[in-house]
Design brief:
The structure holds 2 protein chains of 2 kinds. Chain A is mainly alpha-helical. Chain A has 27 helices and 4 strands. In chain B, strands 1-2 form a two-stranded antiparallel sheet. The termini of chain B are far apart. Classes of the chains: A mainly alpha, B mainly alpha.
C-alpha cells in the first residue's frame, strides 16, 4: 500500500510542478489537464484507501518514508499514518478538490493567471494531504504551513488589487500568530515526550498526566494542559476561531473556487482534524477541553450574527463558515471528536456547494457580489438555484439532509456534556441554529427570489452557467443531501474511529446520544419535533416575512437599532483593535527603536560619538602644535619654570 | 590519492592565486578576465567537494590536517584542519563565490578584473579563517579578509561608501584587537598558538571572563549582535551586490564560527556564567531588530536588519546549552541548539545571499533601493517575482525551506531551558513574516507603481541561473537536512562534552 499512499500525495504535487514551471509551454488546457489528472488519480487512490481501511477493516498503516534528520537519537521523519480518520479526510479533500479543479475551468476561463491558479490549487491539495496523512508533528507543521502559504498566494491571486494583497498578508500574519502557539506546543511535546512521532507520544501520554511546568514562577501548571492549549492556539489560527478569526472574511478577496476549497471545505478544517488526531492528549486535560469549548461556542454564535448583516454574497457564506467551524470546535470541546469530523465532512460538501453556487451566481452577474443588486435569479439559472437550495437546507439542518445529522449530533452531544462551559455551549449551539437559519434564508430569498434588482444590461445576459460549473454543483449536491443519513451510524456509533480517536469514558457523550439513536430515519423523524427544527422554522418564517412580504422592514430595523448595526458592521471592533495596537503599534515601536535606539543611542552617541570625541580631543591638542617657534620656546620656558619651582620648594 | 593532496591548502591558495592571475589579465581584457574568474571559482568549488565526500563523520578529530612550522621562534605554525563545524562553511564559501562571479558578470562596469580578483582572493582568505588551526594563522586570515572587502565596498560601492567602509573597518578592527590580546595572553600560558591546545588550557575564572569578553567583542561585531550591529546596514547599503552577498552569506558566519571554535571551548566557565548576557543580546536581536526591520524604507537595509535578527538564532542556539544543563541536569536538547545554530548559519547564507541578489536584480534596472520606488513588479517580472516570493518565504522560516530548520531546532531546544526564552524567540515567526512579506507586498504585488516598473525586463538567463541554484539549495536543504546535520553530530557532541566540563 505504501506506493498507493505515495501516489496520493505525489500526483497533485507533480501536477502543480508541471503547471507551475512549464505553464507557458503546456498552455491553458495542458495546465488544467495535468493538474486535474493528478488530483483525479489522488481521488481514485483515496477511494482505494477508503475501501481498504474502512470497509475491509485493514490495520492502520504507520511507517516512515524517509528520515528528515536524526538528532540526539530522535528521528525526525516524513511518514504516513493512515487509518480510518485519515482515509475519510483524504477522500473528502481529494473529492472536493477535484470538483473545484473542474469548476475552475469555467470560473477562471478568462483569467490571465489560469496556469498559475491550477498550479496553486494542486499544490494546496498536496500540502493538505501531507498534513492529514502525517504520522508526526514535524510533517504536520510542514503541511500546516504549506496550506497557509498556498492560501496566502491564492487570496492575493489578483495581485493588482490592493484589497486582495492586503487580505493575503493579513491572513498569513494572523495564521502566523496561531502557528507561534502551535510551534511552542510542538516544543512542549518534544520536551515532555522526547519524540515527535504520534505513536510514541500517544502511547506515553497517560504517564505524563501529572507532569507540571512552571511558566510563571511559583505556579505549577499541568504540562499536558499547557501543551494542548498551545497546540489549540494553532488550530484557532487555521480554523479561524475567535479572536484569530479576522482573516477568514477578508480571504474572500480570493477567487471563489478557492473560497470553496480552502476557506470552507478543507484548509480551515485542519485545526479540527488536528485536535481530533490529538485526542489522546486533549482527553487528559479537562481544562484544555473547556478552553476549546468556550472558544468554539463564542465563534459559533457571534460569528453567525455577523452573517445576518453582510451584503456580499461570499461574505455571508464566509461568516457561516466561521460559525460552522465553531460548531465543530464545540464538538471537540465536549469530546465528541467523531461528531466534529462528521460535521467537517458534511460541511465540506455543502459549503463547497454553496460557495461554488455563489460563484456561479457571480459569473452570471458579471462579477457583481452585492446581493442587493440581485434577486429573482431562480428562473434564470435553475440548476444553480436548485443546488443552492439543497445546500442551504443542508446547512440549516433540515431533517434528512446531511447537515442535520451532523449538527444535531453535536447539539445532542453538548446536551449530555458536563464539563465546565457546556451550559454556555449548549445555549450557543441551539441559538446558533436560529441564526444559521436566519442568515441562510435571508441570503437565499434576496438572491434567488423577490424583485430582480440588477441593471438592465446584466439582466438581459442572465443565463445558466456552463457545464463545467454546473456539473460540480450537481456532484456536490448529491452528498450534501444523502451523506449524512448514509454515514451517521458508521461515523458516530460504531468502532470506525477506534484506532484513531480516544475518548475517556468520563467524557463519552456520544455514548448517551447513541442510546437515543434508532437508525437514521428515526433520527430525522425525531428531529422534526425537536427544538432545533422549531428554531429553523422560526428563522425561515421570519426571513420570509422580512424579505419577501415586507422588504421595507429590514431597513427600518436597521435605522432603529443603528448603534447595534454599527457595532456589527465594525465586526465587534476586532479589526480596528488589531490595526491600531499591533500594526500601528509595531510600526511605531519599530520606528522609535530605530530612530532613538539605533540611530540615536548606538550610532549617534556611541559610534559617531566616539569618533567626535577623538576629533574634539585632537582639535584641542592641535592648538598646542602651532608650528611657530615662539610657541615652543614659550612652552619650554614655562616648563623650565615649573621644574625649577618644584626643585626649589621641595 | 585524494587524501595525499594538501586539499585545504589547495582550496585556500588556488582561488588566491587565481585571483592574482585575473589581476594580471587585467581590465583591458574584461571577457578573458571574467572567463578566467569563473573558471577559478568553479574549479575551487569542485576542489572543495572532496572535503565533503571524503569527510569522516564518525570522528571529532580535525581532518585533512596540514602542518608546516611557520615562525618557529614564537611556535607559530601553518596548521590547517577541518571538523564538522568548519567543513560545511567552507563549502558554503566556495558555492557562494561562484554565484557572486556570475552575479557581477554584466553588472560591474569598471575595473571588472579587479572586482573579480578581490572576490577570489577574499574567498581564499575566508576559507583560511575556517581551516586555520593555529591562532595566529587564524588571526592573519581574519584580518587579511578585511582588505578585499574594504576595497570592494570602497571602490564599487554607493555614494556613502567612504563612511561605510571606515565604519566597517574600524568596528571589526576594534573587535579583533581585543581578540589578539587574548590570544597572546594564552600563548604565554600555553607556549604555542595551537587552538586545540587552548581548548585544554587551564584558566582561572577571572582569566576566563576577561578572555571571554575579548572574544565576545571580537565575534559579536562580526555576527553582528546587538548593540554592535550598526555597521552592517551601512555596509550593506553601500556595498555592491556581490559584496553584500559575501558579507551576509560568509563573513557574518565567521563570528558565529568564532564562538564555537574559541569562546565556548576555551572559556566554558565564563560562557556558562555569562550565558544570560549572550541570550539576552540574541533575543534583543530577534525582537528589537525585527521591529526595526519592519519600518525600513530601503530594501537592503531591511534585509540587513533581517540578517541580524536571524543571526540572533545562531548565538541563541550556541549559548542555550548551559541553561538547559542547569535547568534539566542533562544535555538533552543542547545538540539541537548548537546544530540549529549551525544550520541557521548555512541556511542564512543561502537566503540572505539570494535576497541581496534579488535586490541587486532590481537595482540594476531601476537604480533605486527604496521600497517606494517599486510596486507591482510581478506584472512585468513574473519569473523574478516567483523567486522573490520563494526566498521571502524562506526568510520567514517556512517549513520545506532551509530557513525553517535552524529556527525550529533552536526554539525546540530553548523550550527545554525556559518557556519564556522559547516564547520570545518564537516571536520571530510573526515578525519575520511581517517584515518580509510586507516588503514583498509593497515591491512585488500591487498595480504597476510607476513608469520604471512598467519598463522592467524580466530576469535574464544568467540571473535565472544564479537564482535557481540558490532556490535549489534552499529547497533541498529544507526538504532533506540530514546530509548537512549528519556531518556535524560528532563535532557537536565533542564540543558539548568539552564545554560542560569545568576548567576550574
Amino acid at each position: 500500500m505504501q506506493n498507493v499512499y505515495l501516489g496520493i500525495v505525489l500526483a497533485p504535487l507533480f501536477g502543480a510542478i508541471i503547471a507551475g514551471l512549464f505553464g507557458r509551454k503546456i498552455g491553458r488546457a495542458g495546465a488544467h489537464w495535468v493538474t486535474i489528472i493528478g488530483v483525479a488519480i489522488s481521488f481514485l487512490l483515496s477511494l482505494v484507501v477508503l475501501r481498504h481501511h474502512v470497509w475491509n477493516g485493514a490495520e492502520p498503516y504507520n511507517a516512515s518514508v524517509y528520515t528528515w534528520m536524526v538528532i540526539e537519537g530522535i528521528r525526525l521523519e516524513v511518514g504516513f499514518l493512515v487509518d480510518n480518520l485519515t482515509a475519510i479526510m483524504i477522500s473528502t479533500v481529494t473529492f472536493v478538490s477535484l470538483m473545484v479543479h473542474i469548476y475552475t475551468i469555467g470560473y477562471m476561463h478568462d483569467d490571465d493567471g489560469y496556469q498559475r491558479f491550477f498550479s496553486y490549487i494542486a499544490l494546496f491539495t498536496f500540502a493538505m494531504l501531507m498534513l492529514v496523512m502525517s504520522n508526526n508533528f514535524l510533517q504536520l507543521f510542514f503541511g500546516w504551513e504549506g496550506v497557509g502559504v498556498v492560501s496566502y498566494l491564492l487570496i492575493g491571486f489578483w495581485y493588482k488589487r490592493e484589497s486582495a494583497i492586503f487580505a493575503s498578508l493579513k491572513a498569513f500574519l494572523v495564521n502566523r500568530v496561531g502557528d507561534f502557539g502551535f510551534l511552542l506546543g510542538i516544543a512542549a511535546v518534544l520536551m515532555a515526550f522526547n519524540s515527535l512521532d504520534y505513536a510514541d507520544v500517544f502511547a506515553a501520554a497517560p504517564l505524563m498526566a501529572d507532569m507540571t511546568i512552571q511558566i510563571i514562577p511559583g505556579f505549577d501548571w499541568s504540562l499536558i494542559t499547557v501543551t494542548c492549549i498551545l497546540l489549540f492556539i494553532g488550530a484557532m489560527g487555521k480554523s479561524a476561531q475567535v479572536p484569530l478569526h479576522v482573516w477568514l472574511p477578508d480571504s474572500m478577496e480570493g477567487p471563489t473556487p478557492i473560497s470553496a476549497l480552502i476557506h470552507a471545505a478543507t484548509m480551515v478544517t485542519a485545526g479540527i482534524f488536528m485536535v481530533a488526531r490529538m485526542s489522546p492528549l486533549f482527553e487528559l486535560s479537562e481544562t484544555a477541553l473547556s478552553f476549546v469549548l468556550v472558544i468554539g461556542s463564542l465563534t459559533a454564535l457571534f460569528m453567525g450574527f455577523l452573517g445576518i448583516i453582510q451584503n456580499d454574497i461570499k461574505r455571508v457564506i464566509a461568516y457561516s463558515t466561521l460559525s460552522q467551524l465553531g460548531y465543530m470546535v464545540v464538538a471537540l470541546g465536549v469530546s465528541a471528536y467523531s461528531a466534529a469530523i462528521f460535521h467537517l465532512m458534511t460541511h465540506a460538501f455543502f459549503k463547497a456547494l454553496l460557495f461554488l453556487g455563489a460563484g456561479s451566481v457571480i459569473i452570471a452577474m458579471h462579477h457583481e457580489q452585492d446581493i442587493r443588486k440581485m434577486g429573482g435569479l431562480w428562473k434564470h439559472m435553475p440548476i444553480t438555484w436548485f443546488t443552492f437550495l439543497l445546500g442551504t437546507l443542508a446547512l440549516i439542518g433540515m431533517p434528512g439532509f446531511a447537515g442535520f445529522y451532523s449538527k444535531d449530533s453535536i447539539i445532542e452531544a453538548v446536551h449530555y456534556s458536563h464539563i465546565a462551559g457546556s451550559g454556555f455551549a449548549y445555549l450557543s449551539v441551539v441559538l446558533g441554529v436560529f441564526v444559521t437559519s436566519f442568515y441562510s434564508f435571508r441570503l437565499y430569498f434576496i438572491v434567488f427570489h423577490g424583485k430582480e434588482r440588477m441593471d438592465h444590461h446584466t439582466k438581459e445576459h442572465l443565463h445558466e452557467t456552463p457545464a463545467v460549473v454546473t456539473v460540480p454543483l450537481i456532484l456536490l449536491a448529491i452528498p450534501s443531501v444523502v451523506i449524512g443519513a448514509m454515514t451517521i451510524e458508521p461515523m458516530l456509533f460504531s468502532e470506525t474511529f477506534k484506532e484513531s480517536i480516544l475518548v475517556s469514558s468520563a467524557h463519552n457523550v456520544l455514548e448517551h446520544v447513541q442510546e437515543e439513536f434508532h437508525g437514521a430515519f428515526n433520527f430525522a423523524l425525531h428531529g422534526l419535533i425537536g427544538l432545533p427544527f422549531i428554531l429553523v422554522l422560526i428563522g425561515f418564517f421570519s426571513t420570509f416575512y422580512l424579505y419577501m412580504v415586507r422588504p421595507d422592514l429590514p431597513g427600518l430595523i436597521q435605522q432603529k437599532w443603528a448603534w447595534l448595526y454599527g457595532f456589527m458592521v465594525r465586526k465587534y471592533g476586532f479589526d480596528e483593535f488589531y490595526q491600531s495596537v499591533f500594526m500601528r503599534g509595531g510600526q511605531n515601536l519599530g520606528t522609535a527603536l530605530w530612530k532613538y535606539g539605533d540611530a540615536g543611542l548606538i550610532d549617534g552617541l556611541m559610534v559617531n560619538g566616539t569618533a567626535r570625541l577623538v576629533g574634539w580631543f585632537a582639535a584641542i591638542t592641535r592648538h598646542v602644535q602651532t608650528g611657530y617657534l615662539y610657541t615652543y620656546a614659550f612652552a619650554m620656558i614655562v616648563g623650565l619654570l615649573i621644574l625649577l619651582t618644584w626643585f626649589v620648594t621641595r | 590519492m585524494l587524501s595525499e593532496l594538501p586539499l585545504l591548502s589547495l582550496v585556500i591558495w588556488f582561488p588566491v592565486l587565481g585571483g592574482v592571475a585575473v589581476l594580471f589579465v587585467g581590465d583591458e581584457n574584461p571577457g578573458r578576465a571574467k572567463a578566467l574568474a569563473l573558471t577559478v571559482a568553479i574549479l575551487s568549488l569542485l576542489i572543495s567537494i572532496p572535503l565533503y565526500t571524503s569527510f569522516d563523520p564518525t570522528t571529532a578529530a580535525m581532518q585533512f590536517q596540514e602542518f608546516i612550522p611557520w615562525i618557529p621562534t614564537f611556535n607559530v605554525n601553518y596548521h590547517l584542519g577541518v571538523d564538522g563545524f568548519s567543513m560545511p562553511l567552507i563549502l558554503l564559501t566556495t558555492f557562494m563565490t561562484v554565484l557572486v562571479v556570475i552575479a557581477g558578470w554584466e553588472v560591474v562596469k569598471y575595473r571588472i578584473a579587479q572586482y573579480m580578483a578581490a572576490f577570489l582572493i577574499m574567498q581564499g582568505f575566508m576559507i583560511g579563517v575556517f581551516a586555520a588551526m593555529d591562532a595566529i594563522l587564524f588571526y592573519v586570515f581574519f584580518e587579511a579578509m578585511l582588505i578585499p572587502m574594504f576595497l570592494i565596498i570602497g571602490i564599487w560601492g554607493g555614494p556613502r561608501r567612504v563612511y561605510a567602509t571606515i565604519k566597517f573597518f574600524l568596528y571589526t578592527f576594534l573587535g579583533s584587537v581585543f581578540m589578539l590580546i587574548a590570544l597572546i595572553y594564552m600563548y604565554n600560558q600555553a607556549g604555542g598558538f595551537e587552538i586545540l591546545d587552548f581548548h585544554k588550557l587551564p584558566l582561572s575564572l577571572t582569566e576566563q571572563v576577561l578572555i571571554f569578553f575579548a572574544f565576545v567583542v571580537g565575534f559579536a561585531v562580526k555576527v553582528p549582535m546587538w548593540p554592535v550591529h550598526t555597521w552592517l546596514p551601512d555596509a550593506h547599503v553601500e556595498a555592491p551586490t556581490g559584496g553584500s552577498v559575501i558579507l551576509a552569506a560568509i563573513t557574518l558566519k565567521i563570528g558565529g564560527y568564532g564562538f564555537l571554535r574559541f569562546a565556548l571551548p576555551i572559556t566554558p566557565d565564563a560562557a556558562s556564567m555569562l550565558d544570560w548576557l549572550i541570550i539576552t543580546m540574541s533575543l534583543i536581536a530577534v525582537i528589537y531588530i525585527g521591529l526595526v526591520a519592519l519600518v525600513q524604507q530601503d530594501m537592503k537595509k531591511l534585509i540587513a536588519y533581517s540578517s541580524i535578527a536571524h543571526m540572533g538564532f545562531v548565538t541563541l542556539g550556541f549559548f542555550i546549552v548551559f541553561s538547559i544543563y542547569r535547568h534539566t541536569g542533562s544535555l538533552s536538547g543542547a545538540v539541537m541548539g548548537v546544530e540549529g545554530g549551525m544550520v541557521q548559519m548555512v541556511s542564512h547564507g543561502f537566503i540572505s545571499g539570494a535576497l541581496f541578489l534579488c535586490v541587486g536584480v532590481l537595482y540594476d534596472r531601476v537604480h533605486s533601493r527604496q521600497i517606494k520606488d517599486y510596486g507591482g513588479v510581478a506584472n512585468t517580472m513574473p519569473i523574478f517575482a516567483a523567486f522573490m516570493v520563494l526566498f521571502g518565504m524562506a526568510n520567514a522560516g517556512l517549513p520545506g525551506t532551509s530557513g525553517f530548520i535552524g529556527e525550529f531546532l533552536v526554539i525546540l531546544s530553548s523550550f527545554k531551558a525556559s518557556f519564556w526564552i522559547a516564547f520570545l524567540a518564537a516571536i520571530s515567526l510573526i515578525l519575520g513574516a511581517a517584515y518580509t512579506l510586507w516588503l514583498i507586498k509593497r515591491v512585488i504585488f500591487g498595480d504597476i507603481g510607476n513608469s520604471h516598473v512598467a519598463e522592467l525586463q524580466d530576469v535574464s538567463r544568467r540571473e535565472i541561473l544564479m537564482l535557481s541554484l540558490l532556490a535549489a539549495a534552499v529547497l533541498l536543504l529544507g526538504v532533506w537536512p540530514d546530509p548537512l546535520t549528519s556531518v556535524m553530530h560528532v563535532s557537536v557532541d565533542n564540543l558539548l562534552q568539552h564545554v560542560t566540563v569545568s576548567k576550574l
